[in-house]
TrEMBL record:
Gene3D superfamilies: dinb family like domain (1.20.120.450). The lineage of its organism: Bacteria, Pseudomonadati, Bacteroidota, Cytophagia, Cytophagales. Residues 25-174 form the DinB-like domain. This is DinB family protein. It comes from the Bacteria. Pfam families: DinB_2.
C-alpha cells in the first residue's frame, strides 16, 4: 500500500477511535467507567489507561523517529518485516486470542478517574498530528524500539499501525464492558 493511502487509513481509524470515546464514554459517570463485569476483568478506564501507558512510550518515540527518518514520496510502498507482521497479528482487533500484558502496562485495580479519558483524547490528537508529519517520511525505516524489548526495532509504518490496531482492539474491549454493564442482572435461584 502506498504511504498516502496507508496514512489516510490510519488517520480515519484514529478519528473513529476518538469519536467513539467521546460519544460512548465521556457521558458516563465514574461508576459506569469503573464497572468490571468480573473481578479479573478490566473496566473501561483500565482499558484506556492501558492505552495511555503505551502512548506515553510510543508517541515520543514517533516524534523522535519522524524527525530522524529521511523524507520519502507519498507513493512509496509500505513494507512489513516478519516481526512487524507478527506484532500486528498479535494486536489485530479481529483476533479473539488473548495475550497477557506486561505488569507495568497492566492497570488492573488502579484508582482511576475521568482524567484517563482526557489524557487518552489528548494522545489521539497528538497521534493525528504525528501521522500527518509521517506522511512525508520513509515509513520503511527501522526506527522504533519495541516497548517491551528496546533492542528490537519496528519499521516506522509498522509501529504506527501497531499502535492504532492496539487502540482499536482495546476500544472494542471497553465497548464490551459498557454493553455488559447495561445488561440486566439475572438471578439464579
Amino acid at each position: 500500500m502506498e504511504t498516502h493511502t496507508f496514512i489516510t487509513q490510519l488517520q480515519d481509524r484514529v478519528q473513529h477511535v476518538k469519536a467513539t470515546v467521546q460519544s460512548e464514554f465521556l457521558p458516563l459517570d465514574a461508576a459506569a467507567l469503573n464497572f468490571k463485569p468480573q473481578p479479573a476483568s478490566w473496566s473501561i478506564l483500565e482499558c484506556l489507561e492501558h492505552l495511555n501507558r503505551y502512548s506515553r512510550f510510543y508517541l515520543p518515540a514517533f516524534e523522535k523517529a519522524i524527525a530522524q527518518v529521511p523524507a520519502a514520496g507519498s507513493d512509496e510502498v509500505v513494507k512489513y518485516s516478519w516481526f512487524g507482521k507478527k506484532s500486528l497479528e498479535m494486536v489485530n482487533p479481529a483476533s479473539a486470542k488473548k495475550h497477557k500484558t506486561l505488569q507495568r502496562m497492566n492497570p488492573h485495580n488502579s484508582q482511576l478517574s475521568k482524567a484517563v479519558l482526557d489524557e487518552f483524547l489528548q494522545h489521539q490528537d497528538r497521534l493525528l498530528q504525528l501521522l500527518s508529519r509521517a506522511a512525508t517520511v520513509d515509513l520503511n525505516k527501522k526506527a522504533l524500539p519495541v516497548e517491551f524489548f528496546p533492542l528490537l526495532k519496528l519499521r516506522l509504518g509498522e509501529a504506527l499501525e501497531f499502535v492504532v490496531l492496539h487502540e482499536q482492539r482495546h476500544l472494542q474491549q471497553a465497548l464490551r464492558v459498557k454493553a455488559s454493564a447495561s445488561q440486566p442482572l439475572s438471578l439464579v435461584v
